[in-house]
Design a protein that fits this description.
mainly beta; 8-stranded antiparallel beta sheet; 3 helices; globular
Length: about 300
């Protein structure tokens, strides 16, 4: 009996069967492998906080301290495509700090822009990061900010190593990927609820103490500065904004069809069942008349 117990303890030490250790099933399709990597200087430029950026052998580090954060932007705008990067996050106390990879046309359409977000919400020490996905559609120009947030925990520690995060955006859908696993699909149900204007790809690190961690309960603590985010393995396969109609970026699923394969849907369902922690469509405090895709 003692030997059996020792074997069980050994197995659990190697394969911890807690909820946090559950790995999604294979999606069976890996769009990141179909897109070549580009160097930072090939596709991006500094946007702000140049003194808080460094580039070393293809690895971009950006950081936030008490004086400033930092951000970068793609040189070109795109009307659709696959956009990704490998990111490694800061460990320890990062409450109030946002690290992001996102699409936006805010500079082109200030006050009524579109946006597709991957944002990592900083956390108190020993608490897991929250990955927030979001979609803004403000093409009407009415100035109303309507977020469509869905939040997740991850099945790994994003501070230990680089992982690939990506957005696939085409005229029919938006898919968010983590290591090629689709975690969210946002289909186009109407022109009013879907971003259609060209956008740029951005990355940034900044202080969002007013809302980022537990609705602003925990603030950025600069005794832990600098807060550093690292990026590499940048990938863009997109149709340039204002380009011709012949461009066709990679598909989000095998066979070139819209939607997801059955294997991808199984991986998506697994992540949503085990790791989703907030869904705007299920928030009883939200006015869902403003988000008709929820109805």
């Amino acid at each position: 009996m003692a030997l059996l117990i020792s074997i069980i303890i050994f197995i659990f030490s190697i394969f911890p069967f807690s909820n946090n250790a559950q790995i999604p099933p294979s999606p069976g399709y890996y769009p990141s492998s179909r897109v070549g990597s580009i160097g930072f200087n090939q596709g991006f430029t500094n946007l702000w906080g140049r003194q808080h950026q460094s580039l070393d052998h293809g690895l971009l580090a950006i950081w936030l301290d008490r004086s400033s954060g930092s951000g970068f932007k793609s040189v070109k705008s795109y009307s659709s495509g696959y956009f990704g990067a490998a990111i490694k996050l800061q460990p320890g106390y990062t409450a109030g700090v946002i690290t992001s990879l996102y699409m936006s046309n805010n500079e082109e359409h200030p006050g009524h822009h579109d946006e597709i977000d991957i944002e990592f919400l900083g956390t108190p020490e020993n608490e897991p990061y929250v990955l927030q996905t979001n979609v803004y559609i403000r093409g009407s120009g009415d100035g109303t900010i309507i977020g469509r947030e869905i939040k997740f925990h991850l099945w790994f520690d994003p501070t230990k190593d680089f992982h690939n995060y990506a957005i696939l955006w085409n005229p029919s859908q938006i898919i968010f990927y983590v290591d090629d696993v689709p975690i969210r699909r946002y289909p186009r149900k109407s022109d009013e609820t879907f971003p259609l204007r060209p956008m740029w790809l951005y990355g940034s690190i900044w202080d969002a103490s007013s809302w980022a961690t537990d609705n602003g309960r925990y603030k950025a603590d600069y005794t832990y500065q600098p807060f550093i985010a690292k990026y590499n393995n940048f990938k863009i396969d997109g149709c340039e904004g204002g380009g011709g109609g012949g461009c066709r970026p990679i598909s989000g699923s095998p066979g070139g069809s819209d939607g997801l394969s059955s294997q991808q849907r199984a991986a998506l369902a697994f992540v949503n069942h085990n790791y989703k922690v907030y869904d705007y469509c299920r928030d009883p405090k939200r006015d869902h008349k403003l988000t008709p895709e929820c109805l």
